[in-house]
Amino acid sequence: MNVSKIWNILFLEERSSIGLSFFRIFVALTTGLHVIPSFFHLDDNYLSSAFKILNGNFFTPQVLELVQKSPDWLVVIFVWAFVLTWFCFLIGLFSQVSCILMTLCCYYFYALNDFHIGTLSWDILLVTLFLMCLTSYHGDYFSVDALRRGDSQAYRCPRPFFIQRLLQLQIVSTFFYTGLYKVTAEGNWIHDNPIYYLMNYPPVGVTKNFLLKEWMGVHPAFCYGIGIFIITMEFALPFLLFYPKTRRSAILMGFFFHIVLLLTLDVPAIFFFLFPAQLLLFIHPGKIVDWIEAKRRLNARSPRYQVIYDGHCHFCQNSIGQLKVMDVFTRCDYVDYQTTDRLEQLHSALTKQAAASQLQLITPDGKMYGGFFAFRQMGWLMPMLYFLLPFMYLPTADWIGPAVYRSIAQNRYLLHLNRVCKDNHCFRP
Hints:
Low-confidence stretches: none
Mean pLDDT: 87
Distance between the termini: 68 Å
C-alpha cells in the first residue's frame, strides 16, 4: 500500500457525516456550560468592575489591549451575541456561520478575562470549535438546516472525512499527553502515589465523597495500582481506538474511564459531554448508515403509522416534508386526505371533517390521535423529536399544547406565501 493510498484512507475518503451532526450537539452543550454560567455575574467577571487576569501566552499584547478597551455596553452586546449564536449552533440553524460567530465570542471573553474560563479544558474546547468552524457538514442532520433543505436522505450523504479524523486525532493526543504528563512531570506517578494523597489530603473542590474513598485512604497499594492502570490505559487507548478489532472495547473503556472520573472528581463539563461524544466519532459512519437502512427495511415489512394531512395546504406540505426528514426509520406512511378515498378503511372514526380540522395519526394497533396528541406520539418515533418529549409531558402540556396547535391549525392557510389564501379563504372545514 503506497503513501498516497494511506493518505486517502486516513483523510480524503468520503463517508456519512451523521456522526459529526450528532457531535455538534454535544460541542454546543459543552460550550454553553462553560460560558453561560460566567454571565450570571457580569460585574464580577467581565465588566469594568471585574477582577481580571489576562493570558499573554495565548493572545498578543495588541489584542489584549484592544479588548480591554471594551465599554460595558459592548460586553453586554457580546453576551447576547454569544447566547443567540450558541442557540443557533445547538439547533443547527446556519450551522457553520453560527459556529464561527459563537467561537469569535468565545475568544473575546477569553481575552477579556482569563480568570473564570481559562483552563486546559477550555483550550481543548477552543481547538474543537476551530475544527467545527471549518465545515458545514455538522448541519447535515439533527439540525434545523436539515429540515430547511427537506432532504430525507441527508443522513447518508457522503462527505469528506477530514474533520472527523482530525477530531479523532485530537482526543487520542489528549489521552497520550495526559499519560505522558503523569510519567514525566514533577510528582511522577511511577515514583509517587497521587491518588493515595487525594484520598487523604484532597484540595478543596477536587474530589467527591464517593463510596470507596475512606477504604482507599488506608490502602496505598491499591491506590498505586489504580494510578498505574490509568497511565497504562491512557497510553493504550490511542492505539486501541484506531485498531478496528479493539475499537469497540476501547470506546467502552473510554466511557467507563469518564464515568469513574465524574463519580470521583469534580471535573469540567468537557469530561461529561465532549469527550464521550468524541469517542463515538470512531464508529465507522458506514455502520451507522447500514444500521439505519436495516431498520428501514424492517419497518417497510411491518405495520406502519398512518399520518393524515391536508395536501392542499402549503404549510402542511412543508411540515410533512420536515416530518419525513425526521422519520429516519420510516415508521410512518403519509396520506393526503384530499386525494384519498380510503379514510374509513384507515379508521372507522376518521372523516374528512376530522382530517380537515387537524393532523391525525393512526397507530398500527388502531388507535387514533389528533393534533397535539398526534404530534406527541410521533415524538416517540423520530429521534430528532426526542428532546421535546419531556416538555410535551409537562403537567400543563395537555391543555396548553392543544390550544397552541388548534390556533396554528385554524390559521394554517395563512402560514405560507399564497395571497389567494388571505384571511383563510382557502380553508374549507
